[in-house]
Amino acid sequence: MKLATRLKQRRNTLKMTQEEVAEKIHVSRQTISNWENGRNLPDINSLILISEIYAISLDELMKGDPKMVKQLDKKIKKGKFFYFLVVVIAVLILLNILHLISVG
Q: Which chain regions cross the lipid bilayer (predicted)?
């Protein structure tokens, strides 16, 4: 399934509007529309925020979308993969810490 379809389906499942999602990740409603219609792809930081808002893993979001994989492949070749990996690990650590604080 393409990322665009997955984004729209998940937003609708959560009964959120494009405007609500846009507000939470600090982009325009039109940007959300463009992502959901496959005109553009979200950047990595936006994907991380979307995965948190939609409570879905990055793996689930991106899996099966050759366009997204190709975009990430280009970034890897440009040496940005390391930065992406560090950001993802940092977010996961932060989420675990927040979870521990809220449970404890």
A: 81-101
